[in-house]
């Protein structure tokens, strides 16, 4: 393939743009905020699991407390009924004595239930504290996630602007170069990330290897408008006065 030396040198301008675009793509893939958001997603998932468990614990205690309160209300109602009957003083003495014994039993039962309820209420207060702590951590993690998302989006917007600028510079450059040369360059670049490089002081700028004496001799004999490629990495080598030929 042939191309004027000046045209070949313009491949380096194209390569500089493509290298910048590749760096921008790498920046997009490796934004620190991506890793931060992944870590936050795991943290939030774990905290949400903790929150569900803590909420279940609170709900279970609420149900137990409600059940005890119902039992206490039933005992109080029974006591009131017995106390009214006892205050009326009607009925056989044996029955009134039985009511007195039952009231003693009901008072003891009420005391036991109220002690149990108090213990459950203390447990509930502790469980609610755990739940409140988890929800505070969740709120903090969500705020950190929102902040990281804003930073990520800002950086992505900056990268997109730079990419648009580089692509707008690339289009006229590609349009002005021979189509077959661009096709060759693009094929090499897609395979190796670098399509063209300077030949400097006998060294390929692509693979960074020194050319052999035989390769240098071959290139010296090659016409200036001939596109030469490195025997090692197969990239296009652009010759200049600094190529050491």
Commentary on this structure:
Helix 1 packs antiparallel against helix 3 and helix 2 packs antiparallel against helix 3. The two termini are 20 Å apart. The mean pLDDT is 94. 77% of the residues lie in helices and 5% in strands. The protein has five helices and four strands; from the N terminus they run ααααββαββ. The protein has a four-stranded mixed sheet. The radius of gyration is 42 Å and the shape is rod-shaped. The longest helix has 84 residues. The chain is mainly alpha-helical and 245 residues long. It has two domains: 83 residues, no CATH class; 131 residues, Helix Hairpins (Orthogonal Bundle), CATH 1.10.287.1700.
Indicate the topology.
Blueprint (H helix, E strand, L loop, with lengths): L4 H25 L2 H57 L4 H84 L2 H14 L3 E5 L2 E2 L8 H9 L6 E2 L6 E4 L6
Parallel strand pairs: 1-4
Antiparallel strand pairs: 1-2, 3-4
Summarize the structure.
By secondary structure, the chain is mainly alpha-helical. The protein contains 5 helices and 4 strands. A hairpin with a 6-residue loop joins strand 3 and strand 4.
Instruction: Give average pLDDT, whole number.
Output: 94
The backbone outline, from C-alpha atoms, is rod-shaped
**Strand-pairing-aware structural class:** mainly alpha
State the end-to-end CA separation: 20 Å
Please identify the top-level CATH class of the largest domain: Mainly Alpha
Number of helices: 5
Q: What is the β-strand count? A: 4
SSE topology string: HHHHEEHEE
Number of domains: 2
Please describe the biggest sheet, giving its number of strands, its sense, and whether it closes into a barrel: 4 strands, mixed
Helicity, as a percent range: over 70%
Q: How much of the polypeptide forms β-strand, as a percent range?
A: 5-15%
């Amino acid at each position: 393939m042939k191309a004027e030396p000046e045209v070949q040198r313009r491949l380096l301008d194209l390569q500089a743009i493509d290298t910048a675009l590749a760096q921008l793509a790498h920046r997009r893939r490796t934004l620190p905020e991506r890793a931060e958001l992944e870590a936050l997603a795991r943290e939030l998932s774990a905290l949400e699991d903790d929150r569900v468990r803590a909420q279940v614990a609170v709900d279970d205690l609420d149900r137990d407390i409600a059940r005890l309160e119902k039992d206490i209300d039933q005992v109080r109602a029974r006591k009131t009924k017995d106390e009214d009957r006892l205050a009326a003083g009607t009925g056989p003495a044996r029955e009134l004595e039985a009511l007195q014994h039952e009231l003693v039993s009901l008072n003891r039962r009420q005391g036991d239930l109220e002690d149990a309820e108090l213990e459950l209420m203390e447990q509930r207060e502790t469980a609610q504290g755990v739940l409140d702590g988890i929800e505070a951590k969740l709120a903090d993690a969500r705020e950190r996630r929102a902040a990281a998302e804003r930073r990520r989006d800002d950086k992505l917007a900056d990268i997109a602007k730079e990419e648009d600028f580089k692509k707008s510079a690339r289009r006229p450059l590609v349009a002005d170069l021979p189509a077959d040369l661009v096709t060759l360059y693009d094929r090499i670049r897609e395979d190796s990330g670098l399509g063209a490089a300077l030949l400097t002081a006998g060294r390929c700028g692509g693979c960074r290897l020194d050319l052999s004496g035989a390769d240098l001799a071959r290139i010296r004999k090659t016409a200036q408008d001939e596109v030469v490629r490195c025997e090692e990495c197969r990239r296009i080598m652009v010759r200049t006065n600094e190529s050491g030929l």
